[in-house]
Amino acid sequence: MNAQVKGAASFEIPEGRTVTVAKTAGFCFGVERAVNQVYEQIKAVKEGKAEGPIYTYGPIIHNEEVVRDLEEKGVTVLDTEEDLKALPEGKGTVIIRSHGVSRHIYDILKERGIRIADATCPFVKKIHRIVDEHAAAGDAVVIIGSPFHPEVEGIRGWGNTYTTVIENEAEAQNYVVPEGKKLCVVSQTTFNYNKFQDLVEKFLKKGYDISVLNTICNATQERQSEARRIASEVDAMIVIGGKSSSNTQKLYEICRRECENTYYIQTVDDLEPESVSSVRSVGITAGASTPKNIIKEVHTNVRIKF
Ligand code: SF4
Question: Hey, which of 22, 37, 61, 187 would disulfide with 289, CB 3.0 to 4.6 Å?
């Protein structure tokens, strides 16, 4: 097959080239659900079924193109509690993103009579409920995760004064359960499973009255395992995602270990046709914030143009 590529020479696409797109490429269930919810709210406001203007508390995903598209459709990103407090009373809709937020944020919005569209991922919501129940029972709660991650800040906001975040071995080693308290341990959804197990082991060794709830979500791990498998089977591998996306960077490193010809691109424009023009098999995966249309465009180009 012969193909002409923008400003480039024409290439012979090897007959019978296989292009494999990872099933787990791109948005996870929770992010897809949140992004869809924003578009549904835009439609609802247009049809007069919901109160505008629409705001998201924090960018709905870390993808500039999606955020820009939403801005063009009238969606404003609010970044701080002060922004929420400055909203006119009783007007508009605030969408909570998949990371979730603390109880305190719901309280601010309810007090101001602002409609909430809650796109918190159900897996995160479940952690809020666990922490809320244990905190109400007076238990100590340890959240294993990174303290400044928005998801962890939100989870912590459902706890009590005995709720704390632990990220590493030294912190786990130094942690002492307050006298007479039971201990509940949960995890940030994207925390590394082996690291979680190691930290839990430290608590178990201390002989505390402890209930451990593994609240890690498998979406990230499944995306990485599939990317690793595909990269080990193809001649060239393409990883799509924002340059500042840490999960895409990680995917790239995993794929690069398996396949020397691994390319990290943000959109199809970054892909040099020469890099895949002569190979017989190509794999494609994408980070958690990469929209379907970008993956589809790369797939189409690799399949019929490059
Ligand atoms: Fe996605 Fe899992 Fe996080 Fe939900 S918990 S947003 S599915 S990574």
Answer: 61
Return the higher-pLDDT residue of 269 and 5: 269
Q: Is 71 a catalytic residue?
A: no
- Local confidence band at 72 (pLDDT 50, 70, 90 cut-offs): very high
Range from 8-22, 70-84, 104-118, 260-274 carrying the lowest mean pLDDT: 8-22
d(CA 262, CA 255): 7
Domain identity same for 244 and 177 = no
Instruction: Pick the atom of ligand 1 nearest to 121's CA.
Output: 4
Encoded amino acid at 19, one letter: V
Q: Which of 216, 250, 276 is the last residue of a domain?
A: 216
| Helical (H) or strand (E) element with 202 | helix 193-205
Matching residue, tokens 């178990």:
204
| Residue 7 resides in a domain | no
Tally of structural domains, the chain: 3
* Cis peptide preceding 122, ω within 30 of 0: no
Using the 3D structure, point to which of 120, 141, 172 is the last residue of a domain.
120
Which are the contacts of 130, defined by CB distance < 8 A and separation ≥ 6?
184, 186, 213, 215
Q: d(Cα 60, Cα 67) in Å, to the nearest integer?
A: 7
pTM of the model: 0.85
Shortest-distance Cα residue to atom 7 of ligand 1: 30
Same domain, 133 and 207: yes
pLDDT at residue number 14: 62
| 130 and 212 housed in the same domain | yes
Atom of ligand 1 nearest to the CA of 189: 5
Which residues, judged by CB distance below 6 Å to any ligand atom, belong to the binding site of ligand 1? Answer: 28-31, 98, 121, 123-124, 189-190, 217, 219-220
**Host domain of residue 267:** 18-27+219-305
Provide the 3-class DSSP secondary structure of residue 184. strand
The reply to whether 33 falls in a domain is yes
